[in-house]
Write a structure and sequence with these properties.
The protein is an alpha/beta fold. The chain has helices at residues 21-39, 52-66, 82-90, 97-124, 127-139, 141-147, 153-172, 176-190, 197-202, 217-243, 253-258, 265-270, 276-291, 293-306, 312-332, 342-345, 347-362, 367-387, 396-404, 412-424, 441-450, 470-475, and strands at 7-12, 15-20, 431-435, 456-460, 480-486, 498-508, 513-521. It has 22 helices and seven strands. It has a five-stranded mixed beta sheet. A two-stranded antiparallel ribbon has the order 1-2. Strand 6 (498-508) and strand 7 form a beta hairpin.
Length: 528
């Protein structure tokens, strides 16, 4: 008779392997969470129109793929290139560039989910917290939304989480291989986005997990010295990888462009409460919205319970690595949006997980009901994100940027399909498309869809449009010519040289509704 009545027995050449039924159940739940994760990420992945930064990153990746000498192209705008390198590699497997970029974010999100699962087990010493943390990550609208966008922030979040997994593991068990892995992850974060630098400063927070208690004083000091050496290894690897970007031109633009997004120290000291106060007010609105009150309330409960339990060290650690970057950005950022906080706010999932475990531990028979309650609101929110984004209760700043204003690419895919059809049907041999602007949603948004059509040239003509661009008029001699422009940036009075072909609506704003306009340009004299 088995000595393991509650275990699964597997016969193997090396003998019998016993797997605890509890572990089997947890593997089953983790599998369900992963399925739920994909159900909330992959359906209708390209439903939300291309966003300005997505268009830029994807266009860079296409250019870098076709021209090997431009592999450091993002440096020309002071951006780190790791995400674009990944897109460049995977473009060969995906026909739709937007789907390709967003799929990379989906799998970055899966990496974040796995990292939260392991980190929950590591800091709370409780596999249930890891499972619940992964569950909350899977259903939280904040993460669902950005894991479905071709932006660098999901990739950065994944790297941040795994950096702390390995650096805490290093603090518990100092080893050179763990230091090297942590350093490589730090370097990858630094060549993903500038906020990766926070990891270098937050590394000492892992000292909370350093445990030399059982050693004599001399050995304690030597052990701490050894850990310090490993930290130097981490910083060395991280900054060596970052400095590989010096191989490309315009490396210096990274620091200069960063100044466009933050106030200098002198400016902050001259007005310490501005932008801190308004940004904290933004946080007060964004966090309950994007996490939903049930999850955020559970996280608050987790903090309260944590300060009264042996898990206080874990709670302090999570509050530190989340709070310091958020407060730093709130105090110095010129531009403050929810996605800039993504890499820092994921600890809320683990705090909510601890809150759920502590709550259900008190009332175990209500555990299933508790999970159901915390599911309803986020899933209702996510349903709109997956099926009809304008109906989702997004914060005003996100709704305007992603759905209503010029940064939203509503209609760009449809305009590109119209132009493709003109070429495929033979009704046009050469097409020139003029667009507002030189950089961003237009013209990059059109270029990513027309990249494989050599008969099309997309040309930015600046904005706002106050007259029919002369370069488009002159091109009508041997091209079929179109102009794509947002109605809010179009100030040309009725002109017979412009024939409106199609009007694509954006989401309705609080005051008005913008449209993407597709005109055909004809070289006739005004008033003729």
């Amino acid at each position: 008779m088995s000595n393991h009545p509650h275990s699964l027995v597997i016969n193997s050449p090396s003998g019998r392997l016993y797997i605890s039924s509890v572990n089997c159940l947890r593997i089953f739940f983790l599998s369900l969470i992963i399925i739920l994760f994909f159900l909330l990420r992959l359906p209708n992945l390209t439903l939300l129109p291309v966003f300005a930064d997505e268009a830029i990153y994807l266009r860079w990746a296409q250019v870098m793929k076709s021209e090997p000498t431009l592999r450091f192209l993002p440096l020309s705008d002071g951006k780190q290139p790791l995400f674009m390198w990944l897109v460049m590699i995977f473009l060969k497997f995906f026909k739709n560039p937007l789907y390709c970029g967003r799929a990379i974010s989906v799998f970055s999100g899966l990496g974040s989910l796995a990292g939260i699962f392991f980190l929950g087990r590591l800091v709370f010493d409780d596999q249930r917290v890891g499972l619940a943390g992964a569950f909350f990550y899977a259903i939280t609208p904040f993460f669902v939304f950005f894991d479905r966008m071709a932006l660098v922030d999901s990739l950065l979040t994944c790297l941040v989480i795994w950096f702390f997994v390995f650096s805490i593991w290093l603090a518990k068990n100092p080893r050179l291989d763990l230091a090297m892995i942590s350093g490589i992850i730090l370097g990858l974060a630094l060549i993903t986005k500038s906020p990766g630098l926070f990891l270098a400063f937050l590394l000492p927070a892992t000292l909370l997990w350093f445990r030399p208690e059982r050693k004599k004083n001399r050995k304690k000091k030597l052990s701490l010295f050894r850990l310090g050496i490993f930290w130097l290894v981490i910083w060395f690897f991280g900054f060596v990888i970052y400095n590989l970007l010096r191989l490309g031109p315009n490396f210096g633009l990274i620091s200069s462009r960063n100044q466009d997004y933050v106030f200098s120290l002198a400016e902050v000291l001259s007005h310490p409460l501005d932008p801190l106060r308004p940004h904290l007010n933004d946080l007060r609105q964004w966090l309950p919205n994007l996490f939903t009150w049930p999850i955020l309330g559970l996280a608050i409960w987790g903090v309260i319970r944590g300060f009264k339990s042996p898990s206080i060290k874990a709670v302090i650690f999570l509050l530190t690595i989340a709070g310091l970057p958020v407060l730093a950005q709130a105090g110095i950022a010129r531009v403050f949006t929810p996605r800039y906080l993504l890499f820092a706010v994921w600890p809320v999932s683990l705090l909510a997980a601890f809150g759920l475990v502590s709550l259900s531990g008190r009332r175990p028979k209500y555990q299933a009901w508790l999970i159901l309650v915390f599911l309803i609101w986020p899933l209702f929110y996510n349903w709109h994100l997956l099926t009809d984004p304008p109906k989702a209760p997004l914060p005003r700043k996100m709704r305007s940027g992603y759905l209503e204003e010029w940064t939203s690419g509503s209609g760009i895919l449809e305009a590109a399909d119209f132009i493709k059809e003109r070429l495929r049907s033979g009704r046009a041999e050469k097409v020139l498309v003029g667009t507002e602007g030189y950089f961003g949603t237009l013209p990059d948004g059109l270029q990513i869809y027309l990249n494989h059509f050599p008969g099309v040239v997309v040309l930015g003509v600046g904005q706002p449009i106050r007259q029919v661009p002369p370069e488009l008029l002159s091109a009508t001699v041997d091209n079929e010519v179109y102009l794509v422009v947002n109605q809010s940036r179009m100030f040309v009075p009725q002109d017979p040289r412009l024939e409106l072909i199609k009007k694509y609506p954006k989401a309705i704003g609080p005051d008005n509704q913008d449209f993407l306009l597709l005109y055909q340009v004809k070289n006739t004299k005004p008033g003729a």
